[in-house]
Amino acid sequence: MRIRTASVTAVCLVLLAAGPLLAGCAADTAAAGTQPAGTQSAADHKAPVGLGSAEQVAAYLEQGISAMATSVVYTSATDPDHLLGKAGGYQSKAAFTDSRIQPGEVTGTGASPVDLGGVIETYATVGQARARAQHLAATLQGLAASEYHYYVGASLIRVSRILTPSQAADYQQAAESLG
């Protein structure tokens, strides 16, 4: 009986430990135009090993998405949102273009980097990345400027609304491959 009690106790402990991980697997569908995110760990876990910066995430994504090319790796001096390195802001940021977006599809002279392909913002925790996505969803709700959101660890991948859902799914699949 002792062995059986120990086995039941061990199983219970494993299930209790897995609870927060399973809770973090919920998809982020808060915003119009937002696609589900890949499987995520608990909100306060760090990015996967070797992918601690937006530039590293971009380099990984480029390996699987031939239409993607990193265009800018921001510094605190060049970040247009002025959030890089600030408390609650991202720790790194990179922009990318997607060759499936034609220049004529992007309207206005002040096109954002997200319009041209997307942006990757890396935070200290997954929870901060999700909070940013929720803030953006609330800000963009009902506007034509909605975008797709995916996650790689503590990185938020913001993908242009100009891409079709099947084109944007390339980013989702690449993000999920890091699962």
Note the main attributes of this structure.
globular, disordered N terminus, alpha+beta, five-stranded antiparallel sheet, 5 strands, 5 helices, Lipoprotein, 36% helix, 179 residues, signal
In brief:
Keywords: Signal. The protein is an alpha+beta fold.
Structural summary, described in words:
The chain has one domain. It has helices at 2-23, 54-64, 113-116, 126-140, 165-176, and strands at residues 68-73, 92-98, 117-122, 148-152, 155-159. Helices cover 36% and strands 16% of the residues. It is an alpha+beta fold and 179 residues long. It contains five helices and five strands, in the order H-H-E-E-H-E-H-E-E-H. The longest helix has 22 residues, at 2-23. Keywords: Signal. This is Lipoprotein. Residues 1-23 form the signal peptide.
Order of secondary-structure elements: HHEEHEHEEH
Please state roughly what percent of the residues sit in beta strands, choosing from under 5%, 5-15%, 15-25%, 25-35%, 35-45% or over 45%.
Answer: 15-25%
Number of strands: 5
Apparent shape: globular
Considering DSSP H and I runs of 4 or more, what fraction of the residues is helical?
Answer: 25-40%
Mean pLDDT rating = 75
SS-based class: alpha+beta
Tally of alpha and pi helices: 5
What can be said about the biggest beta sheet?
5 strands, antiparallel
Radius of gyration: 18 Å
Count of domain modules: 1
Measured between the Cα atoms of the first and last residue, the distance is 39 Å
For the biggest β-sheet, the strand order reads: 1-2-3-5-4
Pick out the low-confidence regions.
1-47
